[in-house]
């Protein structure tokens, strides 16, 4: 059955909304495949506005991987802003894809990629606009399978009632495996309906289907156990790990946005995973082990990607890009290759050492020098031991001196507030560090107009990290601590005017904390917030703390729990955590030991350079660390003219 485009109805609404171009589709490198020639159809959503969603690498990769497969189509959909949402409701226009403006409800799968839990209400908006029942149990044979992925899906329990399924880990192989299961089931005439399809997916061991698991609670509100309610469904669901990134050089044809977006550049992921062991970092923990893309693989992706897009900047992405074993050759090789084309190169890098400055100098050889960002994360040496961020103030000052000596004038320092065991004193040392940075800058340059910016965010304990048991700092305490720091910086006559101070209050962080470590009972809060008008919670101007508090007070007490129970309460070793049945590969006992080491202020090394410390990932996932050097060179490719 052909599916009609909703564009004619949508087009009439577009003159009445802001930035209508974001809903039009047809970007360079986008794909529209004939509906009737495909038997498995995915709609993919990044549940935020187009300007944030389009550059998302995860969605871009899956879009291309699926569309490359014969007989499979994938289209993208993003969150519509409230102005268009109101008009769509008034005129009966459903949630649509931007590629062919097909209704999301017509697809086989509605896949959502969550980088942050604050996108949950946007998922409900999209489901509602699509005409798909919010709760999985109300869906019929005509509804798509609603599937979540992305980092936030490592604990999908707060949205379990709204999901048919979730996948944890790398998506590129997983979506193809899921496609095969759907295709076979459809070819057989859909035996057993969607229930059988979900069962087949669950049986693979790599797809979590919440309805096949019952959660039992203790009288005090904690979880007693999570148990499969259908024979053949595994007790624990495994994460997916792609081992050879060179075999997956996606995106090959990156999308070029039509409207302004947060990143206007081509990105190449140079490695996945991180073993530095920063204890607060969920991304680092859940993406282990480290898998590097080879230097030749990177070179080819940059070459092809630039030709396919016309971008003038390349971002070399990863969790800590300066750690790639051949990054110096990559940076030099690319800077040499694109000297004449004035292609800018950038890498998000948080390592604090002189090598990083050399790298930054190399990368900016063809373009402009803006600021350098370092992330010591904690203000005192003590708290940096707690979080396992092994940077001494001496290192930082030495690095900064090199940066100023090389002509950099702006240094940004990133920190967190509310880390476990933190005191006011730990945070106030941030002010001292910033002053020392300015002083060093003045010394090295002989100039007074040196600037440093301190940026500080609230710490949120995350599942599958050693801090998953930690109490989160409350809103009032976070705000009070940040005010003391602000006063210490602004009140300094000698340096205060040269230090920029950016901070966020603790309110969004505590809601993110609720959603990160919540269980299925939190779903009632998310639904209530959505029904009360909650949208775009990741956006300061749309986020309403008062609404979340009201809905927590409405939905949680009848379950015998409250917001503080989920956030500021410390968990014990014995407690069953809501995500224990989702296997990130990390051994729970190792995480607990690392938590105890944190409390003892004991650091662990990076297992890339030291012997394995048995976090569990490699044996559990049958994977291994994959790093160079390969001995290969970025060029022999011919220099691009
Ligand atoms: S199992 Fe060992 S080598 Fe593998 S990531 Fe963990 S600590 Fe590193």
From TrEMBL:
Under the heading InterPro entries, the entry gives: CHP03960_rSAM (IPR023862), Elp3/MiaA/NifB-like_rSAM (IPR006638), Radical_SAM_N2 (IPR045784), rSAM (IPR007197), rSAM_horseshoe (IPR023404), rSAM_sf (IPR058240)
- This protein's source sits in the domain of life called Bacteria
GO MF terms listed in the record are: catalytic activity; iron-sulfur cluster binding
Pfam families per UniProt:
Radical_SAM, Radical_SAM_N2
SMART domains, per this entry?
Elp3
Q: Which residues form a coiled coil?
A: none
List, for all copies, the residue spans of the domain called Radical SAM core: 260-498
**Protein's name according to its UniProt entry:** Radical SAM family uncharacterized protein
């Amino acid at each position: 059955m052909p599916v009609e485009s909703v564009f004619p109805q949508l087009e009439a609404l577009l003159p009445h909304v802001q930035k209508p171009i974001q809903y039009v589709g047809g970007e360079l490198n986008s794909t529209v495949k004939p509906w009737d020639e495909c038997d498995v159809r995915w709609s993919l959503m990044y549940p935020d506005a187009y300007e944030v969603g389009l550059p998302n690498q995860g969605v871009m990769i899956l879009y291309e991987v699926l569309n490359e497969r014969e007989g499979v189509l994938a289209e993208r959909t993003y969150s519509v802003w409230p102005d268009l949402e109101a008009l769509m409701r008034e005129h009966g226009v459903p949630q649509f894809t931007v590629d062919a403006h097909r209704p999301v409800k017509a697809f086989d799968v509605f896949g959502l990629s969550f980088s942050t839990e604050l996108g949950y209400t946007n998922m409900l908006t999209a489901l509602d606009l699509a005409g798909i029942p919010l709760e999985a149990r109300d869906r019929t044979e005509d509804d798509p399978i609603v599937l979540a992925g992305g980092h936030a899906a490592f604990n999908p329990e707060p949205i379990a009632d709204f999901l048919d399924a979730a996948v944890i880990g790398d998506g590129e192989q997983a979506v193809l495996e899921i496609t095969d299961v759907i295709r076979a089931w459809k070819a057989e005439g859909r035996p057993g309906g969607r229930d059988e399809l979900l069962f087949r997916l669950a049986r693979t061991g790599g797809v979590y289907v919440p309805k096949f698991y019952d959660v039992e609670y203790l009288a005090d509100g904690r979880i007693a156990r999570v148990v499969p309610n259908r024979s053949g469904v595994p007790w624990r669901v495994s994460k997916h790990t792609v081992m050879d990134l060179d075999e997956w050089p996606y995106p090959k044809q990156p999308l070029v946005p039509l409207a302004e977006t947060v990143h206007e550049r081509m990105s190449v992921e140079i490695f996945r995973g991180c073993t530095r062991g920063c204890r607060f970092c969920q991304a680092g923990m859940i993406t282990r082990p480290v898998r590097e893309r080879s230097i030749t693989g990177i070179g080819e992706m940059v070459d092809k990607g630039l030709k396919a897009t016309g971008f003038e900047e390349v971002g070399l992405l990863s969790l800590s890009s300066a750690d790639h074993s051949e990054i110096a050759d990559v940076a030099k090789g690319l800077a040499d290759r694109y000297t004449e084309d004035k292609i800018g190169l950038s890498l998000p890098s948080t390592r604090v050492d002189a090598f990083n400055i050399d790298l930054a100098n190399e990368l900016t050889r063809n373009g402009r020098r803006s600021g350098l960002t370092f992330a010591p994360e904690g203000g005192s040496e003590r708290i940096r031991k707690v979080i396992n961020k092994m940077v001494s103030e001496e290192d930082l000052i030495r690095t900064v001196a090199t940066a100023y000596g090389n002509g950099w004038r702006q240094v940004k320092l990133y920190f967190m507030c509310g880390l476990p065991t933190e005191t006011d004193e730990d945070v106030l040392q941030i002010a001292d560090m910033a002053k020392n940075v300015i002083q060093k800058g003045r010394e090295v340059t002989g100039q007074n107009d040196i600037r440093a910016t301190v940026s500080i965010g609230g710490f949120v304990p995350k599942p599958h990290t050693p801090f998953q048991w930690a109490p989160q700092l409350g809103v009032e305490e976070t705000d009070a601590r940040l005010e003391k720091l602000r006063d210490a910086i602004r009140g300094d006559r000698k340096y205060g005017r040269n230090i920029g101070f950016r901070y966020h209050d603790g309110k969004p962080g505590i809601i993110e904390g609720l959603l990160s470590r919540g269980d299925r009972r939190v779903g009632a809060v998310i639904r209530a917030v959505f029904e009360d008008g909650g949208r775009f919670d990741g956006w300061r101007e749309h986020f309403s703390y008062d609404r979340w508090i009201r809905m927590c007070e409405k939905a949680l007490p009848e379950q015998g729990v409250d917001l503080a129970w989920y956030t500021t309460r410390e968990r014990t070793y014995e407690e069953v955590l809501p995500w224990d049945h989702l296997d990130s590969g990390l051994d729970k006992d190792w995480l607990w030991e690392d938590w105890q080491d944190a409390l003892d202020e004991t650091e662990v090394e990076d297992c890339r350079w030291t012997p394995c410390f048995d976090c569990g990932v490699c044996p559990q996932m049958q994977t291994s660390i994959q790093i160079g050097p390969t001995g290969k060179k970025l060029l022999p490719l011919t220099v691009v003219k």
